[in-house]
Amino acid sequence: MDHGNHTVVTEFVLQGLSQRWELQLFLSTLLLFYAIILPGNILIIVTIWKEPHLESPMFFFLANLALMDICYSCVTPPKMMANLFSGCKTISYQACMLQIFFIHFLGAAETCLLITMGVDRYVAICLPLHYATIMTRPVCWTLVIGSWSAGFLHSMIQVILIIPLPFCGHNELDNFFCDVTQLIRLACTDTYSLEFVMFVNSGLTNAACFILLLISYGVLLVKVRKGSIKGKSKASSTCVTHIIIVFIMFSPAIYIYCHPFQDFPFDKVVALFHTVVFPLMNPMIYTLRNKEIKAAMWRWIKK
User: Fold this and answer.
1) Residue 200: which pLDDT band, with cuts at 50, 70 and 90?
2) Which CATH number fits domain 2-295: 1.10.1040.10, 1.20.1070.10, 3.40.50.300, 1.10.860.10?
3) What are phi and psi for residue 91, nearest 5 degrees?
């Protein structure tokens, strides 16, 4: 259908990662990865929910992180797997918009939750006597709901800016999922200002949060190691774990959204790890470095 000089695009063609069978075989192994790691993340949520001694705000935020990561890792892989095994490479316009919405919704919500977890560690380390009175359960729920709300607002801004774009029939996306950095290049209009807005909204914002979190955790580590804080080893280990997750979460996002004006060779590989692999690994990293959760999980597995 034509609308003026533009074509109403009803679907997009996803080029995928590669046409090489070796890489396609690797992608098929993601099903095994899902079968092992996804139930592990669900077990983390159930363990924290059921165990009375895991009621601290840190574990409450960890359960919400696991939930966000499970949701985030289920946005792009189902369609990628379906296209891989069926040989179909298309995605409808509506499904493309939904992918963009949920990718940015869950990604921004997780970013805000990581900032919230940083605030929680600051209060626990710097204000230990007031921790119980500050980080109450209503406050924790407010922070989590605020994270989800901020993610929703960020995502709505992205979608509202994308939907009015006109297309001239070009509908091939050089990726395995829909994202704003790919879609705006197909538009039949000058998108320089829009790309700049996306660069600021996603790229610079992620970079700023990343730097602030690293600085704050660096300060906390110095305070923990130089001070006489009770449980110094545990606090230090928790901060190191948070730093690892911050690197895993923010580095790919900064790489992807801080260069919206051009493509680079490793864009697809970074996007694969960012949208599929890393989200499922984040809660597992927390769990493997926390003796309390590991012991509680083993009790539930034995049951």
Assistant:
1) confident
2) 1.20.1070.10
3) -140, 135
